[in-house]
Design a protein that fits this description.
This protein has helices at about 1-25, 45-60, 90-100, 100-105, 110-115, 150-160, and strands at about 30-40, 65, 85-90, 115-125. The chain has about 170 residues and is an alpha+beta fold. The protein has two domains: about 1-25 and about 130-160, no CATH class; about 30-125, 2-Layer Sandwich (Alpha-Beta Plaits). It has a four-stranded antiparallel β-sheet. It is elongated, with a radius of gyration of 25 Å.
Length: about 170
């Protein structure tokens, strides 16, 4: 009887934690990436411009992926651009606000001397289901002396992936 109550209590805790994680994920903003296709006009001007641009991006909570001098390889379709600058943003709104900001417009003279913008666009990541079963849902195999965490994982596996829970 005590084991039954303990399992019920642990199942309730596990399901509550899982639901709370799902609610937290629903409120999270989606990441976004700005992609700038550029042609370098003056390498020395580019070398002077990049540190200032990266500093401005980081101050706006962007994360430059340092791809401007990286290799771009065409795989399919139209020819690949010569240079690509990628920046990861916490949200599309953060990226849009930055590209409209005074900090970005103040860099325009340096930027125009250093490179020619072919095009710039923003890609937002897809929303995903907050509650997802792990791939193949294998239940943990345990033998006696199970910890609370192990029991919670076991309960979640059986509730999230009932087809595999019959093993």
């Amino acid at each position: 009887m005590r084991i039954r109550y303990s399992m019920t209590l642990l199942a309730g805790i596990a399901i509550g934690a899982f639901a709370l994680q799902g609610l937290h994920a629903q409120g999270a903003k989606q990441k976004a990436y700005s992609i700038s296709e550029v042609e370098i006009l003056d390498a020395s001007a580019q070398a002077a411009y990049l540190p200032a641009a990266r500093k401005a991006v980081e101050a706006a909570h962007g994360h430059p992926l340092r791809t401007t001098r990286g290799r771009v390889v065409q795989l399919d379709g139209a020819p690949a651009p010569k240079n690509v600058a990628l920046v990861e943003w916490d949200s599309a709104e953060d990226a849009i606000a930055f590209y409209k900001s005074k900090a970005w417009t103040d860099l325009a003279p340096q930027r125009d001397k250093a490179n020619k913008l072919i095009r710039r666009y923003l890609v937002e990541t897809e929303k995903y289901a907050a509650v997802r079963a792990p791939r193949n849902c294998p239940p943990p195999r345990t033998a006696g002396g199970q910890s609370i965490l192990t029991v919670a994982r076991l309960v979640l596996t059986f509730t999230v992936c009932p087809a595999k829970g019959s093993r």
